[in-house]
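Q: May I have one protein plus its fold?
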Amino acid sequence: MSKKTKKKQNKKILIISNIILGIYLLISLFLLGIIIKLSVLPLKYILIILPIYIIFTLLFGFLTIKKNIKSGIKIFIDVILSILIIIYSSGLIYLNKTLNFMDKIKAKDYQTEEYYVIVLKDSGYDNVNQIKEIGIYESNDNYKNALEELHKKIDFTEKKYNNYTNAVNNLLNKKVEAVFKINTRRRTR
């Protein structure tokens, strides 16, 4: 084999090696980022693995970029990097599916609201339709929808309070017939 042919072959190997190294760096950085984002490994293990990864990458990068390294060594490094690319790609696919699954789980947040019309035990009311005045504490915006629904079912007047304690005290002192109570719970699965 002539020197000219050998130089062309070495140049092709160098170009292919650089492409493989670039793909390896890109995939490994994505994999490392996802591992850190998902907290798959504790920080102490990441701090142990990261320097080893950096040394390994710098060594292979140096051997790949250096021109006077034998082509057999470069081909061997390319094979190792190609195997690592396949392994890392599999890990990326798996972790990406895990991220998507976790995003779907996070989307399962929901809120429940319970509404009560509270009366005194000795009030004598048998039915909510008998109540003509209800004390309302405007705790948040959620109560408005419930009040609209309650107004559709019964006819009553609202007596507004600036805190729930005052509304309950007026119920206990029989200054209001009933008190409207809302419980809102936000749950994350």
Notes: The chain has a mean pLDDT of 83. The first strand starts at residue 110 and ends at 118.
